[in-house]
Amino acid sequence: MSASPRHPSTRDAPSPRLSSRPGPRLRIESCKLGTRLDAFCLDIHKNEAVSLLSDDPALPSMLCDVIAGFRSASYGSLAVEGIMLDGLPPESRPVVLVSPRDPLFPHLDVAGNIAFPLRVRGKGQQEIEASTTRILALVGLERVARTRISALDAGQRIRLALGRALAGTPSILLLDRIFAGLDLRTVRRLRQMIVTLQRALGLTLIHVAQDRDDALWLGGRIAIFDSGTLVQCADAGTLLDRPEDERIASLFGEANTLAGRVLSIDDDIARIHLACGGVVEAIADERLEADALCVLCIRPDRIAPLIGSTMAMEEDTPPLMATIQTVLHAGDQIRLRLRLADGSEIEIRRPLLQAMRGVTPGATVQLAWQASQAVAFPMKDDL
């Protein structure tokens, strides 16, 4: 992927080709990037903040390059409020990309960098000064307005890049791994500022996330790509509690996966005999059928370990038993690593406030959960 220097949009967007009905702010239609990204469709609406998360770190950055016009898709189309972007150069698109790959202008001070796109677009001096002053305040750089770029710290450089982008009043603001290499305190401050700006200004944001935690802070939908396929795009609650695919459950929800066979399905609840022993229940994916092999996904914080006592079970419902391997105190929770009868291992996370007597390596525990806390999917042939 090219890392050549780029400049903010310097020309007004072309006159829109009007649509007969209102549509999304950004429509991605059957977009495909060679062999790296399968064709997919995605609508992003006005004032919405969407994070992109992928097992291939380069893939969301490539997609941002396509939206901004620095790379061409091998197939598909993009439109912003009905304006087709196909063939438009970056400077003619109502899109601005903010990325560590894009340099600031070292010969200009902070205010000069923000004013640059306004000057190129032919704005009057009075408007330039007013807009620059406003943006400096928005990104918290008033005190360093006359400072040279070389004197700024990493966090201030990101604030300046955001300010320069806002000066172009883009319809879409792309944030490509802007927190890479920053310390945690700086990242937290920048996130708080961006959330405030997004809500106050009604920004439409697309954010390339580095990991799950980085995808959560915006609070909007998260588009998850796995092996070049858009698997699901939804809010965090839906991704965690109602994933559409076991890949979402394991990659985003960090769920444990257990193989088994479906004994029965009643009112969307599957009764499953696990390969590691024990009969449990879970929500059945709509594609799941009785007597089929399946993969059960259960998040570590949804499993209850019963220590020192066992839950009453019916004769045809043997319990799921495990042996504690390791116990780790991790701040506000205890993390347990357990081994099942077939030798596979799973993780449990429990709050420190809960009584955990007898939680020691070597102890045997019975595992239980509510059916609504687990999801069972058909087992794929390649599993």
UniProtKB/TrEMBL annotation:
<keyword id="KW-0997">Cell inner membrane</keyword>
<dbReference type="GO" id="GO:0043190">
    <property type="term" value="C:ATP-binding cassette (ABC) transporter complex"/>
</dbReference>
<feature type="domain" description="ABC transporter">
    <location>
        <begin position="20"/>
        <end position="252"/>
    </location>
</feature>
<dbReference type="InterPro" id="IPR008995">
    <property type="entry name" value="Mo/tungstate-bd_C_term_dom"/>
</dbReference>
<keyword id="KW-0547">Nucleotide-binding</keyword>
<feature type="region of interest" description="Disordered">
    <location>
        <begin position="1"/>
        <end position="25"/>
    </location>
</feature>
<dbReference type="InterPro" id="IPR050093">
    <property type="entry name" value="ABC_SmlMolc_Importer"/>
</dbReference>
<dbReference type="GO" id="GO:0005524">
    <property type="term" value="F:ATP binding"/>
</dbReference>
<dbReference type="Pfam" id="PF08402">
    <property type="entry name" value="TOBE_2"/>
</dbReference>
<keyword id="KW-1278">Translocase</keyword>
<dbReference type="InterPro" id="IPR027417">
    <property type="entry name" value="P-loop_NTPase"/>
</dbReference>
<dbReference type="GO" id="GO:0016887">
    <property type="term" value="F:ATP hydrolysis activity"/>
</dbReference>
<keyword id="KW-1003">Cell membrane</keyword>
<keyword id="KW-0472">Membrane</keyword>
<keyword id="KW-0067">ATP-binding</keyword>
<dbReference type="Pfam" id="PF00005">
    <property type="entry name" value="ABC_tran"/>
</dbReference>
<keyword id="KW-0813">Transport</keyword>
<dbReference type="GO" id="GO:0022857">
    <property type="term" value="F:transmembrane transporter activity"/>
</dbReference>
<feature type="compositionally biased region" description="Low complexity">
    <location>
        <begin position="15"/>
        <end position="25"/>
    </location>
</feature>
<dbReference type="InterPro" id="IPR013611">
    <property type="entry name" value="Transp-assoc_OB_typ2"/>
</dbReference>
<dbReference type="InterPro" id="IPR003439">
    <property type="entry name" value="ABC_transporter-like_ATP-bd"/>
</dbReference>
<protein>
    <submittedName>
        <fullName>Spermidine/putrescine import ATP-binding protein PotA 1</fullName>
    </submittedName>
</protein>
